[in-house]
């Protein structure tokens, strides 16, 4: 017969002790609509934030809701005041992971370098500036009647192509809650 093994002593902290340990660290809450089935997206964002910021964060929580909600809030320290980082309705959709990481970094540790995420954000910013510079030049440069006509034909062709693409590939039907429509 084998000898019984003594139980392993475990040191556990009470919930109050755990709460006081992390009260000075930022807490992030991702609220998602269960009817729209956005739990996996919320979990993915939570995983990305935890893998990037590790022990710099005190908590990343998922809060189920209804009504098409998808928000990311942060409580930056010992205060109880939440700061809204992202709201799907306000910001027009879901954030890209790099955007969300940059928003969290700006509050948690503004001096932190996010490596490739920062490079990608800087490239996007530069590209947007380049586009706005080109558009500004177009606005100030008078076009001849022939050039304007060519541009109108090109714009119409592009619009027709986009319309035919959307007709060829109808969007997949998704089950959404009545508040999401």
TrEMBL record:
Cross-referenced NCBIfam families:
CXXU_selWTH
Q: Where does this protein come from, organism-wise? A: Talaromyces pinophilus
Q: Which residues cross the membrane?
A: none
- One Pfam family name is Rdx
The organism's taxonomic lineage, starting at the top? Eukaryota, Fungi, Dikarya, Ascomycota, Pezizomycotina
Question: Quick check: keyword Manganese in the entry?
Answer: no
Q: Which UniProt keywords apply?
A: Redox-active center
Compositional bias ranges of the Low complexity kind: 148-163
Q: Which InterPro entries match?
A: Selenoprotein_Rdx-typ (IPR011893), Thioredoxin-like_sf (IPR036249)
Q: Which PANTHER family match?
A: SELENOPROTEIN DOMAIN PROTEIN (AFU_ORTHOLOGUE AFUA_1G05220)
Keyword Aminoacyl-tRNA synthetase listed: no
The highest taxon in the source lineage is Eukaryota
Q: Where is the composition biased (Basic and acidic residues)?
A: 123-141
| Disordered: annotated segments | 123-181
Q: What is this protein called?
A: Selenoprotein domain protein
């Amino acid at each position: 017969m084998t000898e019984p093994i003594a139980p392993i002593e475990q040191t556990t902290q009470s919930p109050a002790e755990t709460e006081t340990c992390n009260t000075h660290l930022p807490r992030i809450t991702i609220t998602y609509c269960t009817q729209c089935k956005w739990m996996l997206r919320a979990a993915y964002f939570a995983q990305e934030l935890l893998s990037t910021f590790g022990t710099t964060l005190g908590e990343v929580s998922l809060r189920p809701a209804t009504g098409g909600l998808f928000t990311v809030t942060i409580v930056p320290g010992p205060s109880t005041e939440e700061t809204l980082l992202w709201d799907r309705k306000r910001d027009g959709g879901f954030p890209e992971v790099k955007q969300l990481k940059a928003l969290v970094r700006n509050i948690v540790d503004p001096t932190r370098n996010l490596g490739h995420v920062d490079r990608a954000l800087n490239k996007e910013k530069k590209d947007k500036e380049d586009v706005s510079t080109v558009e500004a030049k177009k606005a100030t440069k008078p076009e001849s009647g022939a050039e304007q006509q060519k541009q109108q034909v090109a714009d119409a062709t592009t619009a027709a192509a986009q319309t035919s693409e959307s007709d060829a590939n109808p969007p997949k039907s998704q089950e959404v809650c009545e508040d999401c429509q």
